[in-house]
Recover the amino acids of this structure.
């Protein structure tokens, strides 16, 4: 599925909505989904936990994934994460 955001069209392999969940659940659930994706696949992640703005980029760095874009509007954060080759 293709999603349009401020960086253009992104081919999304998986969508995960963790709205209403608090740390560490958004990170944990995102890690589980990323684990099953193929390198190059993109996860679109929606969160409402303000801590996700720090936690999700940290997860991507630790896993050696690529954080393609972040959108933070009205208490809802969206992340587009491309699975890296390393994990």
């Amino acid at each position: 599925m293709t999603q349009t955001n401020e960086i253009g069209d992104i081919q999304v392999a998986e969508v995960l909505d963790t709205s209403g969940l608090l740390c560490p659940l958004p990170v944990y659930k995102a890690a589980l989904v990323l684990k099953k994706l193929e390198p190059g696949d993109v996860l679109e992640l929606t969160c409402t936990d303000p801590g996700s703005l720090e936690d999700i980029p940290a997860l991507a760095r630790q896993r050696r994934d690529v954080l393609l874009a972040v959108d933070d509007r009205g208490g809802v954060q969206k992340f587009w994460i491309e699975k890296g080759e390393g994990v």
